[in-house]
Amino acid sequence: MIILIFLVLFLTAAFLSARWTWWRRQMPGLAVLCYHKIGTPPSGSKLKELWVTPAKFRSQVKYLLDNGYKTLLFSELDAACKGTISLPEKAVVITFDDGYENNYTQAWPILRELGAKGNIFVVFNTIGKVNIWHDPSSEPWINMATAEMLLEIKKSGVMELGSHTMNHPRLETLEPENAAWEMRESKRQLEALFGGEICAFAYPYGNGASSPALRDQALAAGYSLDFSFTQGKTLWPWNRKHGPLDRLFIRGDENIFDLELHLSRGASRLF
């Protein structure tokens, strides 16, 4: 019986140590949170981890503010990288990939109400359309934000926009000139439509973030900030030569304990 109890305790401890990374050393560096959709997953969704409920998102943003974190816009992070302003001691960057309508209807009002800031990486050719890069048999198509919504968000000063290419491709599968066009043209079109500089770029699926050639193309396109989909934090001050800015993927099934582990350990789970 004692052996059985010991075995159960051992297996439980092993599971908890794999599911949560409380045992890791604290990780210094900049925390960049990566969200996608704020809302309830539709029927048939097989990518439920991409959905964070509004209530959970609100509690996460409130946790950040209650614990002294300062949320930054892309332009503020860019200024800190260039040394024109100092990075706050507890800085955090909230980002959303793709530009869904629910970023406007759900996330933006919560950020505005709580006094926090966020940023959206926009896929230009799907503005006002749907998320056509998803297979609808695994992730139903939903509405993307319209140009009017994104302009209202930008003018509010609560959220800024970045580029997520023209069409959301896996950049490494494209011919070099086509990949360069996806990055260059999206920046040009976003700046023409919304005004102001687009300084930030995120690689769709994280594909290309570890390619020196593609990163050089992103720099040549005029982006001073580029973001991966790699889980982790980025040592500060950021040295662009060492790689893009890493992010912390916030899943829909995570809680406040997970968020704290992301912020302190650079990940909340091993699987």
Describe this structure as you would to a colleague.
By secondary structure, this protein is α/β, with parallel strands linked by helices. It has a single domain (27-265), classed as TIM Barrel, CATH 3.20.20. The chain has helices at 2-19, 54-66, 74-81, 101-114, 147-156, 176-194, 212-221, 256-265; strands spanning 31-35, 37-38, 51-52, 70-71, 91-98, 118-122, 159-163, 200-202, 225-231, 245-249. The strands form 2 sheets. Strands 1, 4, 5, 6, 7, 8, 9 and 10 form an 8-stranded parallel beta sheet that branches. The chain is globular and about 65 Å long. The model is unreliable at 4-17 (pLDDT under 50).
CATH class: Alpha Beta
Principal-axes shape call: globular
CATH architecture verdict? Alpha-Beta Barrel
As an assembly, this protein is single chain
Number of helices: 8
Taking all Cα atoms into account, the compactness measure Rg is 19 Å
Helix content: 25-40%
Query: Ranges with pLDDT <50 over ≥5 residues?
Result: 4-17
In whole angstroms, the N-to-C terminal distance is 31 Å
CATH superfamily: Glycoside hydrolase/deacetylase
In terms of DSSP E residues, the strand content is: 15-25%
Largest sheet: 8 strands, parallel
Helix/strand order, N-terminal first: HEEEHEHEHEHEHEHEEH
Structural class: alpha/beta
Mean pLDDT: 93
Q: How many E-type strands?
A: 10
Q: Which fold name fills CATH's third level, the topology?
A: TIM Barrel
Structural domain tally: 1
